[in-house]
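TEACHING EXERCISE
Course module: macromolecular assemblies
Task: Read the component lines below, then compare them to the predicted structure of the full complex.
Student: A.B.
Group: 4
Components provided:
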Amino acid sequence: MKSGSNLEKVILSGNPAVTAELGPPMSADPHEVIKKANILKGFCDAANITDCQTAVVRISSIAAAALAYREGLEPVMQMTCRDRNRIAIQADLLGAAALGLKNCLCLAGDHQKFSAAGRLKGHPGAKNVYDVDTCQLVGILKKMRDEGLQEGGDPLEAAPKFFVGASWTPMGDPIDFRPVNLLKKVNAGADFIQTQGIYDIELFRSQMEKIRNMGLHERTAILGGIIVPKSAMMLKYMDSSVAGVSVPKALIDRMNKAKAAAGDDKKKMRELQEAEGLKLTVELIHQILETPGVKGVHIQAIEWETAIEGIVKAAGLYPRPTFTE
Amino acid sequence: MSGGPATENKGTHLERAAALKETRPYSPCRAACPVNTDVQAYVGFIAQGRYAEAFEVIRSVNPIASACSVICHHPCEQACRRCSVDEPLSVRHLKRFALEQAADYRRSKRRLIEKTKNKSIGIIGSGPSGLTAANDLADMGYKVTIYERHPVLGGMLATAIPSYRLPREALKEDIDDVISKGIEVKTNCEIGKDVALKDVMAKHDAVLLALGLSLSRSLNIPGVEGQGVLLAIPFLADVAFNKKPDLGNRVLVVGGGNVAMDVARAARRLGIKDVEMVCLESAEEMPAWKWEVDEAVDEGIKIHHRWGPKAVKREGDKVKGLEVTKVLSVFDAERRFSPTFDNNQTTLIEADTIIITIGQMANVKFLKDSPVQVDERGRVTWDPKTQMSSARGVFCSGEVVTGPGSAIAAAASGHRSAIAIHLYLQGEAIEGALPTYQKEKLPELPADVVEKINREPRKKIKHLPAETRCSSFVPFEFGYDELEALEEAGRCRGCAGGAVVDTKKCMACLTCRRVCPYGAPVVQAYSEINPERCQACGLCAPECPAQAISMVSYDVRGPRDTMPEIVGAVDPKRQEPVIVAFLCTHHVGVKGFELPENVRKVPVHCTSRIDVNDLLKAFECGADGVAVVRCGNGSCKYKGVEGRVTARTEHAKKLIAMLGMEAGRIGLLTADAGNGKSYAAACAEFSGRVKEMGLKDAK
Amino acid sequence: MIVGSQKSIDEIWNMVKDFKKVLVFGCNTCVAISHAGGGKEAETIATLLRMRASQEGKSMEVDHTDVMRHCEPEYFEPVMDELKKYDLILSTACGVGVNFLSQRIGKIPVYPGVNTSFYGAVEAPGQFVELCAGCGNCILHLTGGICPVARCSKTLMNGPCGGTNKGKCEIGPEVDCAWYLIVERMKELGTLDKLAEIQPVRNWSTSRDGGPRRVSLEHIRAYEEGEARKSETAGGNK
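Instructor-supplied answer key:
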C-alpha cells in the first residue's frame, strides 16, 4: 500500500470505488464543512475537498479536508498549480500529511479569470503561479512519497504518503490527444484518476477502448465522473460551455420532458427535473461501471450533497465497504 | 522641440521642396517642357483654385507664359501619363485659365528691379529668347537694353503669329512683366541701319544676338519674281500691322509647316474664300501640328498633298496659278528630306496670289565685316556649350542658332544665354554650367495602377464655329470656365508630387505599404515610395507612426502649423460655435465654398490628407466643432479614402471623448461635388448640432 | 518587437498635472509600429494634454519630439540638452526606454506615457499578438514552434489542461488554446510522439523569476573594457 487511505483500500479490494465532492464555503465558519461531511459520510469512500474551485476564495482544501477527516469522512485534498509555487506546494503537502490526510488530487486549477464563471467578482486580476503543471506536480508527490526527496533534491525526514490522483478530461479536445494526456499523468505517477463529467457514454467508451489498448487501466484506477444534473438548463449549459463535456440530445430531451410535465408550476418543474436528474445519474453510474477498465465513479452533486445518499443507494452501491486496520 | 509652428519652415512648401524635386525623376510633363515648367505643381494649384500660386509656378520659368498659353505646342500634353488612362490633361488650356484668373495679381507683382550689378547687356531681338534673356538678366540685377527693329516687342510672336491665335493683349502681359523690371527698350531700331553693331558692342559689356529667323525662303522656280507672289513673313507682318494686302480671290499657300497654316488661315480671315495649300508631304508627313491642319480644313482650306512647285504661271504680270509636279517621295531611306518627283505628272493649281511658306532664315547681313563670324550658309558661328559667338562677349540665342523650333524652346535658349552672359560677366566658366533641361522622367503608369484610376474624359474646349471665326481675327478658342478648369485640373494624377520617406525616421513598419492603394511603398531596411506608382493622394502620410512621410506637392503639417491663424481669436461671448471645416477642394477649389461666418476653412486637396492630429489641433486652438467635408457622389479621385478617413475621424472622436468632449463635435460630412453651396449647407447643419452641445468654454 | 498600448489621458493627466513644462518623448521603433508611442502618437498625446490643461485652467507647456530608439543611448544623446529644458519627460517608449532615460537624465523625472504590453507580432494591421515571454530558456523545438510559456494561460509544460473548449482557452472564446495548437502543429509535423514525453519541472531562473537579467557578450566586453583601461592609463578621456 502506498498510502493506506480508505480509497486506496477500496480500489485494491476490487470493489467499485465511489468518491463524492465537498465544496468548502466562502466563510471562516467550519460548520458548513462539518455539516456536509456528515451528510456524505458513509455514502462514499472518499470525498474531494475542492481547492478554491472556479478561482473563488473558500476555506482551503487542506483545512477543510482536516475538518472533514475529524468528522470521519475520508477526504481527497486537492492541490492546484494555480496558487502556489513548488515551495508552497511541498510545504502544504507536508502539513497535510502531518494532519493525517492521505489522498491528494493534482489539478492545474481553473484560471483566475474564471470567477465562478462570472457569477462572482473573484480575483481576475490575481497573478497566477503555475510554477509546475499537473503532470509535474504528480511527479513531485511521487518523488516525495517514494524517494523521500523534495523536488529540489533535499531529503525529507518523513515522507508524505499520499495516494496520488489526477484529473482527466477524456472527451476534451484535441480528443485524439487525450489518451496521451492520461498516459503522461500515469507515467508521472497518478495512482487514481477522476474524470470530467461523462454524459456521452458512447464517446467515453471509445476513449476507454484506447486506454485499455494502452494498458493504462491496469496502471491506474480510473473513476468515471458524473455531474448530477438538476435541470435541462444545466445540461444545455454544460453541453455548450463546459470544456470537455458533451451532453447527448436524448438526455436533454428527457430532462425537457420532465420539465414540461410540470406545466407552469415552477416548484414542480424543479422537483420533476431533479427527480429525472437523479434517475439519469443512476443510469450513468451503471453505464460507466459497466465500461471495461473503469474502477469506480466520482459523483459531483454540486451544492447538492444531500443527493448523494439516495444516488448511491439507488445505484446499489450501498453500503460502502469497510476495512479493519 | 515641436510645439508651435516650426521655425525652419521658411518660404512656401513649393520652394522648400524644390531641391528635393531635383533629386527625383521629373513628371513626364515637366521633363517634356523645354523650360521644365513644373506642370504638376501648377495644375495642382489650379485644381485647388489657387491661381496666383499657379501663376507663380508658370512664370518662374516662362517669361512668355501668356503667349505659350495660347500657342504652345504643349509637349507636356503629349507626355502626360494620363494618356494611358484615357486622354492627356489639357495643360495648355489650364495654363491659359490660370493666367487669366491671376491677371490682377500678376500686374500687381510687377516691380522695378534694382540694378545691383554694374554691367549692361544689349539684346538684339525681342522674340521669346531675347525677352527671356532680358527677363533673367534684369532679375539678376543687370542693366538691359533691347534693340528691336519693329515698332513693337515680341519678335515673331508680335509680327508673324496672327492675332486669332495669339491675342496681342496676352502677349502684352508677358512683355509688360519683363519691361516693368526696368529694361531699356529701343524699338524701330534696326542694327546696321539705325545703330551700328560696333556701337552696340562698345556700349554694352555683353551683347546677345536673339535675331530669330526673320527672312522667308523663296523658291527658285520660273515666274516667282513679280507681283502676286508673296513671302510668308512679310505677309504675316502686314497682317499683324493691319495692312491688308491685295490678294485677289484665290490664294495658294506653298508649304506644309505651321507657319503655312498661319498664312493660309490668316488669308481666310482677310476675307478670301478660296484658300488652298500645296505641300510636298502627305497628310501624315506634314510638319504642321495635326490640330492646326484639322482646324484649317474646318475653315474650308483645301490642301493639295504631294505636289511640288515647278513654275509660277502668269498671264502677263498677273499670276494665273502654280504649276506643280507629283511628288514620289519626300524622304530618303535615312529619313532625310530629299524629295523625288514624277516630272511626267504635272498640274496647274489656279490662284491669284501665291504665298511661299517653305521655311525661314536669319537676317545676318549686318554681321558682315563684324567680329561675329557667319558661315557660308548664312549661319552665325557659335559654341552651344557657351552660347557665345566667335566674338568674345557676343552671345547667341534662339532660332538664329538652334534653327526653327517652338517659342518655348527659344525661351529655353534665352535662359541659357542669360546664365552664360552672367557667368561671363562674373568671370566664371560657362562650359558645363548651363542648364540642359534634360531630366530623368517617370516611366509610364504601371498597368495595375492605371486600372485603379477613374476614367474621366478630358474637358473639351469650345471653339467658334468655322464659318464665324473666319470672318475676323477674333480668337476662336474659348477658355475654360472655372468649374471646367477645376474639373480638368482635378484629372491630374500629381506625378512626381507624391510621398517621400525620411529614411532617418522610418523604421520600416509597413504601415504605408498597407495603406497605399497603389502598391507604391516598397519596404526593406526602410520604406521607399516608388514615384512611378504614387498618385500623391496623401493617404499614407497621416498614418505613418513615425511621421516619416512628407509629400513633394504639399506640406503635410500645414493645417496643424497654421491652425492658430486659421481659427484666430475666439470670442468667449460668441453666439455661434466656431467650426473648423476641413474641406475637400477637388471640384470646387479653395474659393468655391460659401461658408457661414462661424466656419473656419481648411482647404485640403482630398480629405485623405487629414491627420488625427490636425483635428485635435483645431480643438486645441479653440474650435467648438470640427467637420471633415468630403466630396460626395463617388467623385473621389483616389481609392480607399472613405474608409481611412472614417477610421481617423472615429479615432479622433475617441480621443476627444477622453477629455470629456462629445464625440459629435467631430463630423464626417459629405457635400455634392462641384456644388460649393452644398459644402456650406453641410457645415451649417453640423454647426447647428454643435451649438446644441454648447460652446466649449462658454459652459 | 515590443508592443505598447496607450494609456488613458486621465491616467497621464494625473501623472503630469503638477508640472509646468512637459515633453512628450516618442520612440520611433517598436512602440511606433504598434501605433502607441511613435512621433505621431507623441504629438497626439501632447495635443490632448494641452487641451486638458486648458480645460483645467492650468498653465502648462507641452511639446513633443521623438528619436529612433530609446534603448540605445546614442539615439537620445543628441537631444539630451533639449530634454533637460523640461520639468518632466513623458516617455512614450516602452518601459525599457523609461528606465534607460531615467538613469541618464539626472534630476528630471521620466514618466511612462504608454503601457508596455508584450513581445509580439503584427498579426494583421492594427492587431498585435503575444508570442514570446522572454523566459530565457527556449523550448520551442519541443512544442512545434508554439510557445506554451507565452501562449498558454497557465504556462503548462505538459498541456493541454481540461479547459480546452473547441480549440479555445477556458479564459475566453477569443483566446486560442496554445496546447490545442501545439498538438495540431506536432501532428502536422509528424512529431506528435514527442509530446508523450513528460517535460520536467522547469528552471525558471532564466526568466524574470531569477531576478533582473543581463546578457553580456564576453568578446565585446573584453575589448571595450580593455579600451577603457587603456584610455584610463593614458589619462585621456575616451
